[in-house]
Amino acid sequence: MTHARLPAARPPIQVIAHRGASDDAPEHTLAAYRKAIEDGADALECDVRLTADGRLVCVHDRRVNRTSNGRGAVSALELADLAALDFGSWKDREESPDWDPLPGELTSVLTLERLLELVTEVRATGRPLQLAIETKHPTRWAGQVEERLLHLLKRFELDAPAPAGEASPVRVMSFSARSLYRIRAAAPALPTVFLMQFVSPRLRDGRLPAGARIAGPGMRIVRNHPGHIERLHRAGHRVHVWTVNEPEDVELCVRLGVEAIITNRPKQVLAQLGRS
Ligand code: G3P
Ligand code: CA
Questions:
Q1: Which residues form a coiled coil (predicted)?
Q2: What is the predicted ipTM?
């Protein structure tokens, strides 16, 4: 008796911890990334900005006011200034009753270098943890963000093509097509994700800008224009959605067959997907 061939099983949706497990611990701190690793996240997301002395640090906002006890723009502060600040105590304990504030390294400013060390340590145990790095406001620095980023990835040997059948340990994301173009030109092996807040009329047919290989629509696009996700898939692109925190949004992403979910709540999302 002959059987119809079953379609190849799809790999599970990748769960990426947005700024670490940022619902449970202060975003972009070692505490948040360690929690995401403990929760079982497949990958970690981080934003990177350049300090006044040319170091890449993981901070989302232009200024440090919201997430630390200091004030001022990251670009106007040196790493030593940032190292003197506390990036943990702003997080409301009532909002995160499970999180016990921790002193020192766990809540101080996180350099990209330190995060790469952490990812390298975890990968050395055999767990294929990945990192999704977002370049913030790269246009302001005329290529310096990408240059510094690529320099660090090379130092950690994270910029080389992945062996056949394995995923790249790092991908670079940006709202800036120019930033992705720079990355692609200098390091063609690195996957690049074009982040979208809305569907630009130029890209309505599911195309991506030159330099981008993966589509990164916001959850608002997924909810309001699910047909666009189908177009992106038809155009052959993988789709990584941010920021997916609510169970009904996870459900919609699963229905649409997206390849990755970027979430502040990796533990809950993994549980919903039956992976905990
Ligand atoms: O993962 C993409 C997402 O982080 C983009 O938005 O503002 O959280 O960096 P934002
Ligand atoms: Ca981000």
A1: none
A2: 0.99
